[in-house]
Amino acid sequence: MAQIPEMDRFLTVDELHADLDRIVAAYPDIARLERVGTSRLGEPIRMLSIGSGAKNIFLFGCPHPNEPIGAMLVNYLSEKLCTDAELRDAFDYTWHLIPTIDPDGTRLNENWFAGPFTIKNYARNFYRPAGPQQVEWTFPNSYKNNYFDATLPETEALMRVIDRLQPEFMVSLHNAGFGGVYYYISRDTPEIYPTFHELPTWEDLPLRLGEGEVPWIDPLAPAIFPLLSVEDQYDHLEANGADVSTMSSGGSSDGYASRYNTVTLITEMAYFDDPHVNDLTVTDTIRRDAILKGVDISDEGTEVVSGHLDAVRSDLKTNSAFETAVSWFMDNAKKSKGAQRTWAENDPATDRPATVAELFSSNQEVQFYRLLQVGMLVRMLEGEVAVGNGTPQIRQHLKEARDTFEAWGDKLERELDVRAIPIRKLVAVQLGSVLATAQHLASHRS
User: Fold this and answer.
1) Which of 161, 334, 373, 390 gives a 20 to 30 Å CA spacing to 193?
2) CA 51 distance to own-chain centroid
3) pLDDT in the model for residue 336
4) What domains lie within the chain, and their CATH numbers?
5) Alpha helices, DSSP H, located in 2-97
């Protein structure tokens, strides 16, 4: 971890691919490069394989295209494995690495890759696909009334790789936007949790000790959770009164790889943090009230973005990725918002004082994530104007959406004691968690 150099920006898709070519040219006896698929827009998806161990380890970056920390890990680790035989052979692995599994979506985030690393610049240039276009969440799934088989070409590439490798260990290289470090693991492995808790301290990063990312899973240990699944989501929504009759959600890479008894790890790190994200001081606010206030803040964002979208919908011409994403997120929020409110109002676990960290995640973090939706709305409307479709309605709502973005962004930055975390620190913690898990699995094979 300490050997990772400083990184002043995230690499673009073209730079990542160029570096794959450089590595195989420099280390032809160690590294092998193959094309394993094609993106929806025709981009080659390539995988680098290094070493000759008896077991396979598989890492893939940008499972969501706004999450490039893992791409930087792959970029660093690829050459490190080629030059460090001791590391390459330490766990009897053949290493398989894909820097970005969604190159099309990653390119739509590249405007913020070189900074400045501020909340507003990130949100203003942010893109995240609609659920049915997210590579991580479009694996085949059939559960109760949920049925999904609309797999993407990128997802099918992952399926082929997983079927061929049957990896002992797989790392879906996600990361968060705001908060601290937290983990998902597919197998309860308490022996490595102390290491997971210690790793961030080596890089002066906090654990995320506020509310969990979703309310339907209980932590295995502080900041360590079992993997998310569409089955658990379905049960939670159904139990809390949501209409699941039309639900059609795909499964995850972990769900697909579980047939091979693969251990999957996700290490979530955030670009930005604040001293409150792991503050366990008890407040005077009841946790239920804090969560419900967060739901109100989120609902306000949905109302504002949906209002703009509905007003211009008949004028839209481009059918852009941003239009698809904004429409899906708004529709999804409307369908599920009642379930979160019902859960918060009725779960006895919310009837206690909230910690500072929980209060923070229910309020400031919610404001951060709704700002991302406004940012995508602005990009959608700017795209219409850019192709000559600047109708009076579109121009009016573009101005209003920009004004809302600036007002909400300024308010959030005033309320936060925000820090933009150096990229190398984020890559280091992700690498440390991969190596710690690999070491544990290798030492317990018998």
Assistant:
1) 161
2) 29
3) 84
4) 13-274+421-443 (3.40.630.10), 277-417 (1.20.120)
5) 13-26, 69-83, 85-89
